Amino acid sequence: MTITITAFERSPDGGKGLARDTRVRWALEEAGQPYEVRLVSFRAMKEPEHLALHPFGQIPTYEEGELALFETGSIVFHIAERHPGLLPDEANARARAITWMFAALNTVEPPILELVTAKVLEGDKPWAKERLPLVVERIRNRLNQLSARLGDADWLDGAFSAGDLMMVSVLLRLRPSGILNEYPSLAAYVARGEARPAYKRAFDAQLAVNAGKPST
Ligand SMILES: N[C@@H](CCC(=O)N[C@@H](CSCc1ccc([N+](=O)[O-])cc1)C(=O)NCC(=O)O)C(=O)O
Predict the structure, then answer these.
(1) Is 71 in the pocket of ligand 1 (CB under 6 A)?
(2) Which atom of ligand 1 is nearest to the CA of 12?
(3) Helix or strand or coil: residue 68?
(4) Mind listing the pLDDT tens digit for each residue in 46-86?
(5) Which of 24, 59, 117, 170 to mutate to test the pocket of ligand 1 (most atoms within 8 A of CB)?
(6) What is the mean pLDDT of the chain?
(7) Would the pLDDT of 215 be above 70?
(8) Residue 214: predicted pLDDT
(9) Which residues pair with 68 in a beta bridge?
């Protein structure tokens, strides 16, 4: 059955991989699954048709026959469950890879999103200058812990998995801040993810959508 995802008609970053449809595109490419893309405007995302798919009026969504999903973690897990290439067959290794998916979304991404909030949404608040260093400290704490665990391994737990796909995607959000470059082993880990042919196809596909469109 045809897989259809939704993505920004025009991504604020000009389609350079930070919007979360990249994670789903990457998973589908790793799984070798063809997919269609329905582009949605910011306005359309808040209209009933899209809200029926995504209660929070966001992208991405995933449709396949009668099934409609939202939340990139859930969508990537759904793809990984049904196609080889993203989760190990061995039960314990599979469970550990899924643990790393949750760790990326629940433990590493929140402080990174706080930085985006602190800078973009709260930057003009009188207390912003006081808050920002606290946010950065929480990110550095997590990155110290993550780089200690990764050590000199290529991936978080043996072969590349959906856990790495999610962790690399989360860390990519940090790149504009420059903080990632303070952790050479994590920067190299992210670069390994970006070097994967499946990631390159996902990135190029999103960029092509935005080519020639001024970023908002
Ligand atoms: N928890 C949800 C979060 C989905 C989400 O944040 N979607 C964003 C796009 S990806 C987040 C994002 C957007 C833009 C950039 N950028 O750099 O341009 C980066 C990331 C969205 O639809 N935002 C519009 C809205 O909420 O009204 C998931 O993981 O799927």
Answers:
(1) yes
(2) 18
(3) strand
(4) 999 999 999 999 999 999 999 999 999 999 999 999 999 99
(5) 59
(6) 96
(7) no
(8) 64
(9) 63
Ligand 1 touching residue 14 (CB < 6 A): no
Which residues does residue 40 pair with via DSSP β-bridges, in sequence order?
8
CB 72 less than 6 A from any atom of ligand 1: yes
The Cα 49–Cα 190 span in angstroms is 36
**CA 179/CA 6 separation, integer angstroms:** 30
pLDDT score for 211: 84
Ligand 1 within 6 A of CB of 57: yes
Q: Whose CA is nearest to atom 20 of ligand 1?
A: 19
Q: Whose CA is nearest to atom 27 of ligand 1?
A: 58
Answer whether residue 212 shows pLDDT above 80. Answer: no
Around Cβ 71, how many Cβ atoms within 10 Å?
Answer: 17
Give the list of residues 6+ apart from residue 98 with CB closer than 8 angstroms, or none: 77, 87, 162, 163
Q: Is the pLDDT of residue 7 over 70?
A: yes
Residue 196 φ/ψ, nearest 5 degrees = -70, 135
59 within ligand 1 shell (Cβ under 6 A)? yes
Q: Is 12 in the pocket of ligand 1 (CB under 6 A)?
A: yes
pTM of the model: 0.96
Please give the share of the chain, as a percent, with pLDDT higher than 90. 96
Whole-complex ipTM: 0.98
Q: What is the DSSP string of 23-54?
A: HHHHHHHHTT---EEEEE-TTGGGSHHHHTT-
